[in-house]
Amino acid sequence: MSSENYNPVFDESEMKTVQNYISKYPQPMAALMPVLWMIQDKYGWISLEAMKYVGDILNLPADHVLGVATFYTMYFKKPVGKFHLQICTNVSCMLCGGYEIFNHVSESLGIKNKETTQDGMFSIEEVECLGSCGTAPMLQINNKEYYENLTTGSVDKLLDSLRQNSK
Amino acid sequence: MEKIILKDIPGLEKIDVYLANGGYTAFRKVLTDMTGDQVIDEVKKSGLRGRGGACFSTGLKWSFFPRKSEKTKYLCCNGDESEPGSFKDREIFEKNPHQFIEGALITAAALDIEYIYIYIRGEYWRWINIMEECVAETYKKGFAGKNILGSGKSVEMYIHKGAGAYICGEETSLLNSLEGKRGYPRIKPPYPANVGAWGNPTIINNIETLANIPEIINKGAEWFSKIGDPRQPGTLLYGVSGHVNKPGIYELPTGIPLMTLINDYSGGVKDGKKIKMVIPGGSSMPPLTQEEALKAKMDNESLKEFHSLIGTAGVIVMAEGTDVVDVIRRVTKFYYHESCGQCTPCREGCGWMLKVLNRMMDGTGRQSDIDLLSSVAKNIDGNTICALGEAAAWPVKWSIIKFRKDFEDKIKDKTLKLPVLNKVHGLRESDEYDTITFDSEQEVVEDLIGSVQELDNNEDVRKFSS
Hints:
heterodimer; A: 167 residues; alpha+beta; four-stranded mixed beta sheet; 7 helices; 46% helix; elongated; B: 466 residues; alpha/beta; four-stranded parallel beta sheet; 9 strands; 44% helix
């Protein structure tokens, strides 16, 4: 998913999407968050070059883009694994074994918080409450699908199926 | 029991089912038979209070709105939902999204608003997709867009996806985020009603609040005001989590006893254990002890008796054997992580509190640390731009008051006393104030100053005893 370095560029249809975002708001600056999402969806993470590029498109200073990109935790400022596992350990998850899940995944993959496995397949991150307290413990993959009511057994199965699918 | 939002109608999330079950009758009524003032009056009379945590009267909030203003006006629907223990809005997105959308459209029609932004936290990828579809359907049916149902009113509706910041649930922070900036809360006044998004009049309401509006219009303010506790009428979407057998969202009237919620609806405490602590309204609300939990009723005014509040009605239940200090440490870690960094008391204070709680958990806590924690919490409380300061300070402050023994038990070395810490924080009540030597004072100050740096470098996830 993530490439180490990339040359950020939008094609014609993507530029149309950008224009569509701009048209939703009275000022183009407001399109910044959606456009950063576009970059991340396309390249897997947001590099400094990409921030400059986004700044150029929206006519914003690069430091403003940097400020916004670094403020929000869901924008990745460095490459992550093909499967980025975001494991919640906040109160409700913690009470239901969120830390056990985190430690189990961390040990079985041999990586610590915010690290990536050598093959680039997995990375893990301890995240704050994802609003899944009634179905704790849980994790999210690549800012998308939720996996809830986890046990160490079900996490193992999940990791296996991810490995299988990527082959 | 009658439900207002999470009704037991299969397929209600589909617009056709929603329409077949009385959907959009309220909106049509507002467009054809009611003036804006009548709608505001009705909502005011219903006694509906905001469901986002502050519990402010929705009708009153609307009545401050300059709806005759010639400026472009905005409605922001707050679906940032990031309070630990709170997971109700996603239930609305999933089970009855069109009632919320209708509520938003009624609000816009009543207040002469032209643009609606639905702000949803970025993590809710699945529910954002659901809502994108729902908004498209709303346009297709002609309830949004230009000249709605021939009324001459026009409303555009957009979804804005967040990107992972708890603070963006704070209304002015949400506005900055919407404008494409860092989510820094703004100083109030001016209030968003007058100077909001892009400097224009803006109303910000919680998703659950808006989802209540259609039924208030359909069935009347009087009907609504008779449900639950009269001081905060209606139902709440209680989100029960933690050590219970059946965690989940339960829609019940306000003012029900907490134990009814836990025992009759959530299947009781796991393994038949006793309760140790209950957080009644999301992690920022002061916790309740077992005795308080037995007596507590679930509405804002009743909970004040126990120095707590209803917040977002996210109930976190902790059974006997739970380490209170560890829980409070985890809560504090959250606020340390989520502090936007604008105000010094919150930015530094959360780090200090976390550092002290970490060392208590490590077994290197000091006798004076408990008072130090209270003192830091006291100095955050009320000294920040937004309520995140209070949200961070309250759990610490009140858990020390209510569970002091648990904190004392954490201190292994009872002889280690460094009352100078109190001096650093201006708390001069300690008897030992004069017993400090210069050296120990210096050491402690360095210790404190080094704290935030040290926390940042420590990326390891720490697991303690519980």
